[in-house]
Amino acid sequence: MTYKIDPDMLHSVAEQVVGLPLEGGELIAQTVERLAAVYPDLIDTGPGRWVGSKAGGILGKVRFLYFSPREYVVLFGSPTGTQGFSGRYKHVDIHKFLLAGQIDSYDLESDDTVPLPALLPGQRTCLERGHARGLTIHPGSWHLEYGRGAVVTTLPFAMVDTLLVSLELESVRRSTVEFSKLVSRRLRR
């Protein structure tokens, strides 16, 4: 299968923006601008709408940048920190590229009783298909996330917690609007 997004290029962009200030939105704006320079026909540079997201207990803000049946790119973070379950995706690899903050994690199935090495700004990690982790996302942490595989299979995990546990219909509505906007943008090309 061929994909349009190269994880190594996303990592390069993440490394370029590390250290830019969160205040005033420079870190996020520069990330989007640099991604759009690399992928001008894919990344949505329009005024981004942040959407509340709760999945696996992890509560944060997400901004959708690209979505197709086989790939997605989003920005995700939390000003105050959060923790929970990564999800277990049988058909998708989830790559994270940390822009600011710190993410601690541990493998749920291993015999290890110690956490994985902390993910620090400029570093990357990949949750491979079929694996699951416990996560702590520290306050002020923001990352670029790239999913590769049968993306539609991630949507139940991404939406069920928000919809059925939190009863947060507005976030589900906003997410649906953002997905629809990106899909219709792709269909127009």
UniProtKB/TrEMBL annotation:
Keyword DNA repair set for record: no
Compartments (UniProt record): Endoplasmic reticulum membrane
Pfam families (UniProt xref): ERG2_Sigma1R (PF04622)
Keyword annotations: Endoplasmic reticulum, Isomerase, Membrane, Transmembrane, Transmembrane helix
InterPro entries: ERG2_sigma1_rcpt-like
Chief localization: endoplasmic reticulum
An example Gene Ontology molecular-function term: isomerase activity
Protein name: Isomerase
Native source organism of the sequence: [Mycobacterium] fortunisiensis
